[in-house]
Each structure stands twice: as C-alpha cells, then as structure tokens.
Amino acid sequence: MSPALTAAAAGFGTGLSLIVAIGAQNAFVLRQGIRRHAVLAVVGICALSDALLIALGVGGVGAVVVAWPGALTAVGWIGGAFLLCYGALAARRVLRPGGALLTEGETAGSRRRAVLTCLALTWLNPHVYLDTVFLLGSIAADRGRLRWTFGLGAALASLCWFAALGFGGRALGRFLAKPAAWRVLDGLVAATMIALGTLLVVRA
User: Fold this and answer.
1) Is pLDDT above 70 for 120?
2) What is the model's pLDDT at position 103?
3) pTM (predicted TM-score)
4) 3-state SS string over the chain?
5) Mean pLDDT across the stretch 58-85?
C-alpha cells in the first residue's frame, strides 16, 4: 500500500472513531433520517462542517483554538444551554406524543428549523473543536507532507457516516410508525441531549 493510501486510510479510521460515538448531532441526524425530513440538507451540513473543521485543524488552527480557552468556555455555555432546551423539547414529546411517524405535510418553516438546529448542534459543541480541529489536526501533523491526505480520509469518513446515519435511518421508518416507538426514541434523544448539555455547562 502506498504512503498516500496508508495516510488516507489512517485518516478514515481516526475520523470514524471520533464521530461514531452517540452524541447530540448523531441523534438528530438519525431522527431526521427516520422522519425522512430534510435528510439531504442535514447530512450535507454535517459532512461539510466536518470537512471545514478538519481542514482548519490540518491547517494548524487547532493550536490557536486551544490556546484561547475563553472561546471554548463561551461555546460550552451556549452549546450546553441549547442542548438542555432541545432535550426538554424531546422530553415534552415523550409526555405529549404528537402521533406516528410523519413524512408528509412538512412545511418550509420546519425545514428551516431542521437546518438551523443542525447548524447549532454542529457548531455550538466545544467537543467538535477539541476533537475534530485540535486532536485530528495534531494527529495529521505527524503525517508531514501527507497531512492533507490524512485529512481527506477523515472528511470521507464523516461523509460516509452521516450519509449512512441519515439515509439508512429511512429503513427504520416502518418500525417506528407507532407513537409508542417514537416515545422511546424521543426519550433516548432527551436523555442524550440533557446529559451532554449538563456536562457542557458543568465543564464550562
């Protein structure tokens, strides 16, 4: 295997290991995939955002981000508050289910809300900067002239994961056609969001 292919494969594996863990962003993408609502937009936002953050890390911005802890603290407070609010809304849906899986009648407003929520979940999470920018950037730096190849592999891993999560979630639609199933899903989403939001606020 050529050095470039080895670097790309290493980047793919490293990137995948950092994003596969269950988190607020993954839970949201899965929920949108199951609902079959704004999936392409959500997957595109997540993949492009990761690609940009990886490029910043590979380009050396990671050291600057970590050197300014005040920025991470501010993002922690804002992101934590956002996750707590989103978790509260999910918990409210558990107590007041709105019905079965809805795939039709989605409005432009709801699509805009999905896009804005996805952007917030992506960019208001300080772990994104620590993991994607600093950690991946540091690992990529060890690759020397092949660091951009490593970053390309990591970006490809992100694209593959979010596409699988979003479009693969459609296959679960028929199993979640009942309100009871959605209450379970929203319960898991609420628990994830509230736990992560609390953790961010405490650390901030």
Assistant:
1) yes
2) 45
3) 0.71
4) CCHHHHHHHHHHHHHHHHHCCCCHHHHHHHHHHHHCCCHHHHHHHHHHHHHHHHHHHHCCHHHHHHHCHHHHHHHHHHHHHHHHHHHHHHHHHHHCCCCCCCCCCCCHHHHHHHHHHHHHHHHCCHHHHHHHHHHHHHHHHCCHHHHHHHHHHHHHHHHHHHHHHHHHHHHHHHHHCCHHHHHHHHHHHHHHHHHHHHHHHHHC
5) 69
